[in-house]
């Protein structure tokens, strides 16, 4: 017990409490750090530039922005606002609390910044959906390090802008020749994810070779990313070969393999994979069961779908979430079990969302259940009156039933409400290792002459 602790001791203890990781006890430990901070003032000990980053780190981990703003005022009071470490800590706090304007203002006011400052801003924008703002900062940034590149490549891939993610990786490759920055396994995993989204198997194969050529460690994350890439790009056999050769397989690896089988309609293989997973002693998670239920839906395995839904709750104590119910409704409605689908929806402990009702609508559309389909479609239109898809589905149901007047009235309603598909249909194709994109009603990166040649070639093959 130190009778008269000095500032250095207080800083050590505040840092210790603010950094402790004990699950639900994080908030309790941070409270102890705040108590120590208050004790300092009672003993006339003035905080220094090391005290505030520790306190702000605690606020960030607890997402306690109110306390953080009080500490911000203390920072100003004691004259540490221009300290780069304090400034970086404040930016991290405001970004974690989704206060982007506060973080941006702090960034603009900082007299001295470093790579951590810029990275904190870029990562913060990415995590809060500000992809364009993140890209703007990234382009203005000097001295980017591997964290910067990995953050922007991963952020774009996860934000649905996989093509830009791939383009940035190629830009990074040009710089890596000068050893400014070299891709690591995090970069490769993110780019493999982008390839999977784009179906760019040539890029994915090149990355697979790049791993070998550069002796980059192929851990379970990288191996799983390879399985996912090959599977999403259509080469199920190669995906399975890599999966079988993996020395270690965690729940994510098993789940990805199951999801690949589900994507391609191999329901029985997904089922067998699950049994292997159980024999290996790996505990499935809620995502695993989404993959399994999806596999059953695509393969028409109703009994196995019911079994998985039961096992999830009874054996693994995983309470079904809304996406599990949506999968189960999809299984039942595809099998024309509409009464059972409705009973399941009514039994849900949460309010069914558009995906649950959409699964039921899909079954009605598939099997021509006009009465129920009309009721479900009108309910979905009520939930999302500006979603064009539900109007189109209803028109299709009417048309298949020969109710052309009703279909016409529905189309007129769309015109009255000015509802149209604002996102044109878009396709991507990989030609000689380059991903080309073209859309309905939009300009195409693929020259029209080449597109016509491809289509004519396919037409001739089909005639043969």
Automatic annotation (TrEMBL):
Cited InterPro entries: E_motif, PPR_At4g14850-like_plant, PPR_rpt, TPR-like_helical_dom_sf
PROSITE patterns on file: PPR
Domain of life per record: Eukaryota
Gene3D superfamilies: Tetratricopeptide repeat domain
One Pfam family of this chain: PPR
GO biological process: RNA modification
Sequence ranges of the PPR repeats: 114-148, 219-249, 250-284
GO molecular function: RNA binding
Repeat is among the record's keywords: yes
Keywords linked to the UniProt accession: Repeat
NCBIfam families on file: PPR (TIGR00756)
Protein name from the UniProt record: Pentatricopeptide repeat-containing protein At5g66520 family
Species of the source: Cajanus cajan (Pigeon pea)
